[in-house]
Structure formats: structure tokens, C-alpha cells
Amino acid sequence: MISRVDDRLREQIARFSLRYTCEACVHFERDVGACSNGYSTIPHRQTDIRTTTELVFCKAFELA
Ligand code: SF4
Q: For 19-41, how does the pLDDT look when each residue is reduced to its tens digit (9 = 90+)?
């Protein structure tokens, strides 16, 4: 799911400490840097929310 990133979303991410990247997902295998479900992690890895205008959120994300 692609979300537009604007200052409002940036403020909400900061205020609620929202997590949305693979690094915060229970399915992320840190030792190999891969998804245990076999999905590509490239679109969902650390994103610089200060500069990006789009956020690709993984529908299989589960907070670790
Ligand atoms: S389920 Fe999605 S968010 Fe979680 S590690 Fe896999 S690709 Fe990343």
C-alpha cells in the first residue's frame, strides 16, 4: 500500500512513534536481512521520512 507522505503524516509518525519498516516487523530476520515470508524487503526498509514523499507499507507487517 502506497501512502503519500506529507507534514501531517510526519507529525503523526513522530507523535505516536509509529513503526512501519521491516526492521520493526516480527517477520524480519535481522541476521540475514530478509523477510521470513519471502517478500522483498527493499520497498519497506528504513526510509528517511523527512525527505520521502511516498511510503510503501507492507500489508503483512506485524509489529515485533
Ligand atoms: S512481512 Fe513485510 S514488513 Fe514484515 S519483514 Fe516481510 S516484507 Fe518486511
A: 999 999 999 999 999 999 999 99
Cell triple for residue 41? 524487503
State whether the beta carbon of 43 lies less than 6 angstroms from ligand 1: no
Q: Whose CA is nearest to atom 8 of ligand 1?
A: 22
Nearest one of 8, 17, 9, 4 to 56, comparing CA atoms: 4
Sign (positive or negative) of CA dihedral 57, 49, 47, 4: positive
Check if the beta carbon of residue 3 is closer than 8 Å to that of residue 61: no
